[in-house]
Amino acid sequence: MGFFIAQLLTGLANAAALFLVASGLSLIFGVTRIVNFAHGSFYMLGAYVGITLMGVLPGVLGPHFGFWGAIVLTGLIVGLAGALVEIVVLRPIYRAPELFQLVATFGVILVVQDLALMVWGAEDQMGPRAPGLRGVFRILGEPIPKYDIVLICITPFILLALWALIAKTRLGVLVRAATQDREMVAALGVNQRWLFTGVFALGSALASWGGALQLPKGGADLLMDFNIIGPLFVVTVIGGMGSLPGAFIAAVLISVLNVFGVAYMPQSTLVLMFVVMAIVLIVRPYGLLGKEEVAGEHGQSGAPETPIRPFGQRGKIAVAGLLLVLALLPLVTQPFALVLLTDIVIFALFAASLQFILGTGGLVSFGHAAFYGGGAYAAALMVTYAKTPMEIAFLFAPLGAGMLALVIGWFCIRLSGVYFAMLTLAFSQLVWSLVFQWRAVTRGDDGLIDIWPSAWLSGTVPYYYFTLVVGVLGILFLRTVIHAPFGYALRAGRDSARQAEAMGIDVKRVQYVAFALAGALAGLAGGLFVFAKGSVFPTELEIGKSFDALIVVFLGGVKTLSGGIVGASFMAAVEDWLTRLHYWRLLLGLLIIAVVILAPEGIVGSARRLGLRLGLVKHTEAD
Amino acid sequence: MLELRDVNSFYGKAHILQDLSFSVGCGEVVALLGRNGAGKSTTMKSIIQIVRPRSGSVTLAGRELVGQPSYRVARSGIGYVPEDRRIFTALTVLENLEVGRQPRRDGAPFWTVDALFELFPNLYERRNRLGKAMSGGEQQMLTIARTLMGNPSLLLLDEPSEGIAPVIVEQMAHAILRLKAQGLTVMISEQNLHFARVVADRAIIIESGAKKFDGSFEELAAKPEIRDAYLAV
């Protein structure tokens, strides 16, 4: 019994930080309708700024005022940083499509990571102890850290204070009004731009308080921002986006569950919370206390799409010429270049499959790596355990990934917009944690090795040809689907779901099939990958891998299939050079933010616009 | 007080307002008449700057409004009541009024919540109800009251009688006449000629975003061909 109570109390104490961070995310989403992927960065900044201040202030103010003053001041400083991000990065893109906002906040993550590295260095830092709270209380014989009890006591007051702020103050009334109709709030004389900035600053401050308050229990490291994204999104999705009490309930639920998971099922701690999330979403698709999102309600809309057209004569000749060059390359180049080209083709296929679901389908999937890595693992598991010949195991890559997409899609397709994005991300984390923790089968982070192609394909040149043929066929297949009636139905569902329904298209079904197709083709790319490298590790399933693909598609241009391919080639080509730089994340992050704000059409779109302006491309020939 | 000169507004490529010019004097109640799609709402939105005119000028007491953010236009003394009401459905009546509250303004009537409840007694009974739990007529009163909380000197009413029970329309006309008696300048867009004639001093008729008539209701009555050509009867 004592052990049980102790576990429960530890869980409740852990919930404090998680709730603070989640409430900030919820608040920002409620008003700005932006899912701030950089929210974890403010959490991390809070921890670092907190440590620095806790090192300085106690000398000036004494231990107690120093410690708690440092926490309060952390919120002010990080809140200001949040305001700066809102003004510089988000203000120009409030009316842009969701994907652009998500990608822009991802750029912020990269920038903050490198800034933190510059200022605080790469080593993990231990958090200082809270003064006067070093010992433990004994409850039913179990030791409970005093600091945990303090956290448990503080949390309800934070919830109460936030609730009062939202429900009882003029600011709260304005915030709630702006959540529904920004334009009308402005027409009534409220400067809503500063309202948004204020909310963003408050949300960032809440995240930083979460980071600073957990310091005595943990510390600060450079992975905090990514590590909290999983639990953070699970909490917001379970609680319901934009609901503070929902975030509170879900934070408590997940934290307590985690503690008991560690105690009773240490093998499945990571998986557990995603399973809970899945169960909640089956029963309540918009979370415990969330409300249904009506698409397009908030006046966000991109520029009208240019209709896609088949390639003209010149385009066909150019593609054929490029393929010919690629086919003849092994005669003249070094093996190293062929390895790089193989990687590019694989990445291009992966990116094209994402572009298909994202650009054509309008479904912003943030967990596409689950299918890429899933395909790789499907093939690798067949080889490892069934000694399946490569030719057959390879087929299991698209097959396995397609099946996985059918399962994940069943949950995700019912939702749209940001819910869909967060859910796909959470599910990809589920797949990752399964692979990571189910060591008996997947060997965890030791990975599966010795996965080589059959004799007739081994060697750089044969495998290059194999990759080229499969990759090109895969991309052509996607192209055919996009230009087939199925593709039209998919785009109809993207542009106006209601009208498409009225025309007799089962939009959800079409999207479900497209999601499975995109998954299968990502798996195909994963299959190519695993036999090219001879091994696969859980990193292929990580959030970072999904974001790689998203950035590539985004840089290339969201609107055309060639965008993904061009972006992948561009990225693979510069990556080698870029990652050698010391602060490459900073550069990449700034580049992403600049592209979002200045050239939202990506490489392909901008190049075409330039071509149009110079008279090099005719309107009718554009793809 | 309000002057539009050669205003041109667009929705994308559609040219909605075409060189529209007119003026509204201090203390006047002007009715903006025209068929569905004539550009009445766009005229209103081009004044409050929700729609940004591509050319031309809109001035309030000599101050240029074009290019200013809506909140500044509102703070300079223009109260806008949109045609689709746009009350905050998840907020109570009192909270809706709070959103509209602005400081006292020189030369404009000063409104308190109590004074508005006296003007619209129905709202008082519903003061703690959520916006979504109100009838269409009550919502319309709430939008007007919410806008008056900003103490405007010029009120823009976009089709206030649309889709509302006749008995409420009558109350609305009564309220508008009271506002006029307090010295408020009002511009009201209408399709309902009868309602317009009761409350307004002057009629401006537009069609396809261009002005077709500007004068008193007596002059309009003398020219039935204008009424037949530009108003749905």
TrEMBL record, chain A:
Residue spans crossing the bilayer: 12-35, 42-61, 67-90, 102-122, 149-166, 194-216, 270-289, 317-338, 344-364, 392-411, 418-438, 463-490, 510-531, 551-574, 586-607
Family, as annotated: Belongs to the binding-protein-dependent transport system permease family. LivHM subfamily.
Membrane topology type: Multi-pass membrane protein
Gene Ontology BP terms: amino acid transport
InterPro entries linked to this entry: ABC_transp_permease, BCAA_transport_permease, LivM-like
Natural source organism: Paenirhodobacter hankyongi
Keyword annotations: Amino-acid transport, Cell membrane, Membrane, Transmembrane, Transmembrane helix, Transport
GO molecular function, one term: branched-chain amino acid transmembrane transporter activity
Cellular localization per UniProt: Cell membrane
GO cellular component annotations of the record: plasma membrane
Protein name: ABC transporter permease
UniProtKB/TrEMBL annotation, chain B:
Gene Ontology molecular-function annotations: ATP binding; ATP hydrolysis activity; branched-chain amino acid transmembrane transporter activity
Gene3D superfamilies per the UniProt record, alphabetical: P-loop containing nucleotide triphosphate hydrolases
GO biological process, one term: L-amino acid transport
Record keyword ATP-binding present: yes
CDD domains documented for this protein: ABC_TM1139_LivF_branched (cd03224)
Keyword Acyltransferase: no
Keyword entries, A-Z: Amino-acid transport, ATP-binding, Nucleotide-binding, Transport
InterPro entries: AAA+_ATPase, ABC_transporter-like_ATP-bd, ABC_transporter-like_CS, BCAA_Transport_ATP-bd_LivF, P-loop_NTPase
Pfam families found in the cross-reference section: ABC_tran
UniProt family annotation: Belongs to the ABC transporter superfamily.
UniProt domain ABC transporter: residue ranges: 2-233
Residue intervals passing through the bilayer: none
Protein known as: ABC transporter ATP-binding protein
PROSITE patterns according to UniProt: ABC_TRANSPORTER_1, ABC_TRANSPORTER_2
Provenance organism: Paenirhodobacter hankyongi
Lineage: superkingdom: Bacteria
